[in-house]
Amino acid sequence: MHLAAAYDTLAFFGRDPWWLVLLKAVFCFAFLVLTVLIAIVWERKVVAWMQLRIGPNRHGPWGLLQSLADGVKLALKEDLVVKGADKAVYILAPIVAAIPAFMSFAVIPFGPAGNEVSIFGTRTPLQLTDLPIALLYILATASVGIYGIVLAGWSSGSTYPLLGGIRSSAQMISYEIAMGLSFAAVFIYSGSMSTSEIVASQQPTWFAVLLPVSFIVYIVAMVGETNRAPFDLPEAEGELVGGFNTEYSSLKFAMFMLAEYVNMVTVSAVASTLFLGGWRAPWPISTFWEGANHGWWPMLWIVLKIQLLLFFFIWLRGTLPRLRYDQFMKLGWKVLIPVSLVWLVMVSAVRALRNEGYDFTKVLLYVGAPLAAVLLVALIADVVRKKPEEPPAAAPPAAFDPMAGGYPVPPLPGQELPPVPRRRRRTPQLQDALNGADHSEGS
Amino acid sequence: MSTLLAAAGSLEPAARSYLSPTGQEIVFLLVGVLVLGAAVVSVTTRQLVHAALWLVVALGGLAVEFLLLTAEFVAWVQVLVYLGSVVVLVLFGLMLTRAPIGRSPDADSGNRPAALAVGAASAATLVTLVVDAFRSSWIDLSGPAGTTRLTGEFLFSHWVLPFEALSVLLLAALVGAIVLSRAKGDGTKPRPGNLRTVLTKTKER
Question: Do A154 and B194 touch (CB under 8 A)?
Answer without folding.
Answer: no
